[in-house]
Design brief:
This protein has 220 residues and is mainly α. The chain is 48% helix and 5% strand.
């Protein structure tokens, strides 16, 4: 530490005439040993009251070293600090440029995929509409080919149309006349001569001759 350029800020005594050690106050002024007590009460330079002082003795406190360091060393330290900060800033900008390029690529890919997604959604809606049309067509074709039940026809026939939908009249015979057949006592099942039956290749018995045809009298 070079103390030759220092003087007391109250009595202005240089180092070879002042009472050492010098003291530095909280307000940044230097006083010799003889003036420091009065300066702690009130600084004669800035009129600050109640200043705290530190002695300028080796080793100096770490926070006071930069104030008494030679200018060349200070400039060298500042140049190293500037070089360090410039390199860090350069690395930061390089990383930012890489991220910016990736962002642009991802943004382009995103818009491409969004366009493709929109086209697929439009095609999907078209296909859904076609499927609905095909389902309606198949349903109408099925309803057209499926015969309607008789009870539905009877329900759809108006009562005042003059057409009788009695089931006994549909076939041309009445229900009573058809039941008379089963009440006839003389009708017996047709008998076959078992001696004239033979077996075919499948093992079924087939009569040897056909039964005689029943002839009905002419109704004329």
């Amino acid at each position: 530490m070079d103390m030759n350029a220092l003087i007391c800020n109250k009595c202005f005594a240089p180092t070879y005439r002042a009472k050492l050690p010098y003291h530095i106050t909280q307000c940044g002024h230097i006083f010799c040993q003889g003036c420091v007590q009065q300066a702690e009460k009130q600084c004669p330079q800035c009129q600050r009251i109640g200043c705290i002082s530190l002695p300028l003795e080796e080793p100096l406190p770490q926070k006071l070293i930069p104030y008494f360091q030679p200018i060349g060393e200070t400039l060298e330290t500042l140049m190293k600090m500037e070089s360090f900060r410039s390199n860090e800033l350069k690395i930061l900008l390089q990383r930012f440029n890489e991220l910016d390029k990736k962002y642009e690529l991802l943004k382009t890919y995103y818009w491409q995929q969004r366009r493709v997604y929109k086209e697929l959604m439009e095609k999907n809606m078209i296909l859904k509409e076609k499927i609905k049309d095909y389902e309606k067509l198949l349903l109408s074709e099925k309803q057209r080919k499926t015969p309607r039940p008789m009870f539905q026809i009877m329900q759809e026939t108006p009562s005042d149309s003059g057409v009788s939908m009695n089931p006994s009249n549909i076939s041309g015979y009445s229900m009573d006349s058809s039941m008379e057949i089963f009440k006839t006592p003389n009708i017996t099942p047709m008998s076959f001569d078992l001696r004239k039956q033979y077996r075919n290749a499948d093992g079924f018995r087939i009569p040897g001759r056909r039964p005689p045809k029943t002839r009905f009298p002419d109704q004329s």
